[in-house]
Amino acid sequence: MNLFFVIREGFSGIWRAKLPAAVTVVVGFFALVLLGLFATVSLSFFDIIDEVRGRVELEVFFPDSATDEEAGILANNVESLNGVKGVTTISKDSAAVIFNQEFGRDIVEILGINPLPLSAKVHVFPRYAEPDSLQGIVASIHALDPALDIRYNKAFLRQLEDNARLFTVLTAATGVLIAIATIVLVGYTIRLAIYSRQQKIKTMRLVGAANWFISAPYVIEGGIQGLLAGGLAILAIYLLSEQILLRYEPGIYEVLHPSTFLVYPVLVGLGFFLGIFGSTLSVRKYLRKA
Questions:
Q1: Given 101, 118, 151, which residue is the final one in a domain?
Q2: CA–CA distance from 61 to each of 64, 78, 111, 144 (Å)?
Q3: What count of other Cβ atoms lies within 10 Å of the Cβ of residue 266?
Q4: How far is residue 270's CA from residue 28's CA, in Å, rounded to a whole number?
Q5: β-strand 119-124 against 57-61: which pairing, if any?
Q6: How far apart are CA 199 and CA 204, in angstroms?
């Protein structure tokens, strides 16, 4: 009976205090929309970084005395190294064909010989495509053959890692600020609802009601308001993505679209959590003062 009363009070409290409840939902809605958009952009940015990392490769140039057979044996050994996804060997003849495709000239006709070296492209897994990990792979390849000339764009990778690290910090800080602001605002509106029912709370205390019994309806109320805010935020982001971006900015839509499906369930769960957490803090603070 007590549980039924608590749940009923949680739902009916929203209807009895429509204005504070509406303010809480609206505030939570805007906060979650902002957080959802920010999370969508952030996830898309990290997807782009992973895609760029997936294209990182080491260029390995063999000495002039190396044969195709020796290059094949070394490529097999390199493929067994930790972090290496695959190795593609490029013979001197294949290098001449690539030169012809890119520059439209036959290098043998120009110089009379083929000076292009026997080489290989070493493809690494995205999580290893950062300067420190690549340096370890380079050292392992050199251990197999010190005469190899190994090259990769160190400056670009360091700049990529610096930008990713900075964006991660900014993302985390912004997300925390939005979450704190949502908790404070939800808690404040819940506190207004509590103040409007001071007499009822005092009466419940006089008859010996426990603090959890008094606060439970408000906590349920905060959770319901958080769910409503999260649902409305999902609807807003869906309309923005599927109706506006898809119609007017299809390029941006293609980049952001995969991340929106990850954001939808998070917004509902986060809205519920923030509503519960904000209302719990407010109720506890009020009951300690009362």
A1: 151
A2: 9, 13, 20, 13
A3: 16
A4: 10
A5: antiparallel
A6: 9
Nearest to 46 by CA among 187, 135, 167: 167
Q: What's the rounded Cα separation, in Å, for the pair 107 and 207? A: 97
Domain holding 104, by residue range, is 57-151
Helix (H) or strand (E) holding 60: strand 57-61
Angle at alpha carbon of residue 152, lines to 148 and 155, rounded to 5°:
140
One-letter amino acid at 282 equals: S
How many folded domains does the chain comprise? 2
Angle at 156 (CA atoms; ends 153, 161), nearest 5 degrees: 125
Q: Which of 151, 184, 217 is the last residue of a domain?
A: 151
Please give the Cα distance from 44 to 210 (Å, whole number): 48
Rounded CA-CA distance 210/219 in Å is 15
Residues 167-218: tens digit of each pLDDT: 888 878 887 887 777 667 766 766 676 666 666 667 777 777 777 777 777 7
Taking the alpha carbons of 40, 228, 211, 188 in that order, is the dihedral positive or negative?
positive
- Residue-by-residue DSSP string for 276-290: HHHHHHHHHHHHHH-
Integer Cα distance of 195 and 181 in angstroms:
21
CA distance 65 to 70: 10
Q: What b/e sequence results for 172-189 when a residue is b if at least 16 CB atoms lie within 10 Å of its CB, and e otherwise?
A: eeeeeebbeebbebbbeb
Buried b (16+ CB within 10 A) or exposed e, 100-130: eeeeeeebeeeeeeeebebbbebbbeeebbb
235 confidence band (pLDDT: 50, 70, 90): very high
